[in-house]
Structure formats: structure tokens, C-alpha cells
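input
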Amino acid sequence: MQMEYSADEIAAARNLQYLAYICTSMATFWLYDYICSFHEEWKFLYRSRWTKVKALYIIARYVPFLFVITDLFLNFAPYENSKKCKILVNIYSGFGVVSLTCSECFFVLRTYALWNSNRIVLVAMLSTLLVIIASFIGICFSAIATSHVTTSAIPGITGCYRSSTSVQFFMPFLLLFIFQLGLVSLTIIRVVQTWRTSNGNMHAVLVKHNIFYYVCGLFLSAVNVLAPVMFSDAAFYSLLEDLQAFILAILATRMHLHLWHIDRHVHGSEILVCMSMSDMSSADRTATTE
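output
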């Protein structure tokens, strides 16, 4: 006997199928990026010394793998009740927050380096980041707790997704947007202050990387803030969260690898990237005075 399904059930099943396709595409893209940079990455991991920055790199690079795996489970595993789905959504969101935090930390340290290791600037940035992340976590997980979980009533279609109110969704990304705007402002101020005197190669690379990262970060944060306006269906909100976490993680780790290889090529050492990010500024000052 043929079952009849409501329009809402058909729409939910269709959304789950779209999310599964897109999730698979992003997982493939992440794996492709990892394979492309595998040789350079393992050269960096093998040859560089163990430092806090290297540990930050490993977390920023490999936490998204857990993020991807959790996302695949979320989209392809069958769910008999909403409780199991919410548990997985909490785990998935936790990995996303860790990934975003590590990506931002890279560019907090880079901005610190551009400001000649100014500790006041560092404390201000880290304090602001701590407040932003704490607020991000509080809003995000309270939204998950009160959200509605949707599964498919149609046999053969697996996965689930959560639906939150528009305010609960865009507030964390609005806070992230404000933080990134502050970092790009600090970078621009520093560039204006030093554009006549700073001609070192590392300084130029740092500025280019910072500006490009912040432009991408601001754009993605703005898209997430405007998502409730652009998309009437809350099913696609999590997709935009995934996209921002993936893109920023790739940019942060790729740019760090690029900086490490430039330093090895120019100086034949690891002092700029592997010892501490603050060495970038001191090395650049040396290059400027030579």
C-alpha cells in the first residue's frame, strides 16, 4: 500500500537529501585540500621544532577532520529519536567552535607580530577573543537546547538537522564579525604607521595574508549574519556554519605553511615560524635596518 506524505514531510526529506549532497561535497573538498598539501605539511611537521604555535597548527588542521566525520554521521546515520541527534549536533558544534577559535588565534598572533610584539595589543585581542568565544558558546549551545530537530518520515532518507530562530543563529556570527573587524582595523592602522619604513619580505607577506584572511572572514561572517534574510529555510543555516569553519581553517593553516616555507627558503632556518610568532616582527625589523 502506497503511503501518502504531507508537504512538510516531503520538504524535510528534500532538505535532508540536499544537505547530504553538500556535506559529501565539502568532505571531498577538505580531503582534496589535505592530499594536495600532504607533502609540504608533513615536511613542516617532521622538520619543525615542537612549539605552542605548532600545537596550534595541528589542532587547527586536524580538528576539522573530526568536524567532517561528525557532519557525515549527522547527515547519513538513521535517527529514531531527536535526543540522539541533538547529542551529535552538540559534538559537531563543539568541533566547529574549536576550529574557528584556532583559526582566529593564528591571526591574533600575526597581528601581534605586526605590532612589534606589543603586549598591550596582545592582551586586548586575547581578552576580546575570550569574551567573543564564551558568548559564542553560550548562545550556540543554548540555541541547540531549544531548537527543533527534523528527521525524515520517508523510509530510506537518513540524517537530521536542527532549526533555530534567526536571532539565535546570527548573533554568534555578528560577534565574530565585530572581532574580525577589530583585527583588520589594527592591521590597517599598523600598515599606515609603518608603510614608509617596513620593506621586509616577511612584513609584506604577513600584511597580505592578514588582509586576505580578514576579507574572507568578514564576508563569511556577514553571509551567516544575513542567512535568515537570504534563506527562509533554517535547514541551510548549518551549511553556512560548515563553510566558514572549513574555509578559515584552510586559509589559516595554508598561510602558516606558506610562511614557514618562505622563511626556510630565505633564512634556511625555522626561527620565524616555529619558535614563536613574535619572532616575525623582530626578524622583519632586522631586515628593514639592513
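quick obs: Residues 30 and 246 are 8 Å apart (CA to CA).
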